[in-house]
Amino acid sequence: MSKNVLIMEGDGIGPEIIAEARKVLEAVNDKDGLGLDFVEGMLGGRAYDKHGHPYPEETREKARAADAILFGSVGGPQWDGKTERHLRPEAGLLDIRSDLDLFANLRPAITFEQLADASPLKPELVAGLDILIVRELTGGIYFGGPRGVRTLENGERQGFNTDVYSESEIRRIGKVAFDAAQKRGKKVCSVDKANVMEVSVLWREIMEEVAKDYPDVELSHMYVDNAAMQLVVNPKQFDVMVTGNLFGDILSDEASMLTGSIGMLPSASLNEGSQGFYEPSHGSAPDIAGQGVANPLATIMSAAMLLRYSIGAGESANRVEAAVSQVLDQGLRTGDIMSEGMTQVSTAEMGDAVVKALLAES
Description:
With 362 residues, this protein is an alpha/beta fold.
């Protein structure tokens, strides 16, 4: 039975990095007979320019029908401050997460042995690093209400947002984290701010309840400010980190730099079925768009996650990741991970090298 994969380029460097990830998906599809059917849709700023909305109805219908979605990036200066907030490119990303109930964001931070020297931290701190950050993606302060900007009685303007989580939202993201930990190092660190935030008090209570169903997994708690520090001081103490939307947004970007470049960090956003939305963790990088210098590896590894979580093709995913490692062994680097003695290549050359390594496997 065929599987429907929706490809959305997005904005900025999106078209360039998606082109390389699609090459890899098509190659592994042909090699392993996965039966993937590719369709295309638009999301973000370019979708707004063409359809008047960052998540147009045409894309919405394709997204709901897809088994998996591969996305490039969103946003750019041409839409900043010139478009109503609900029509900005980033709003399209929030819309699709909400529409498909993509509540669980998985962001692995893995330091390839070949790139340990590219990290801003000492190699011994990051060599062998393998962290999974599980971020709740459809609740919290990004979606909570009331929100807005109001004028007080004294004439002063005040901005306000609401951080809110229900018990069911916390419980289901907790289960995702504990399930993942059972297949890894059997440790979950729940990150909150329970010393000052009531929503975090409930978060911590529910995580403790979820932990009772996983006696083989060790649960610890950490305040978000300490967690941010510990990621720099001793990152290898972590296995699975689980946290809310805002804290996860910040910590996952911090963790990405431990790997040497945010261009190396894939992500998956899943709903309660097997449907998933896969994208690199970096932004649209409009300053380098169209130059052929962007690192496509995070997008390619996002495609590997797509194969693993939505297509059920774990062996194919393993082969894609092995091909990436082999290319790094060959000394090929894009500019963001370049170091002395290596060979700098373009976006397309990096994608071609991964495909070549993939097809060369017996």
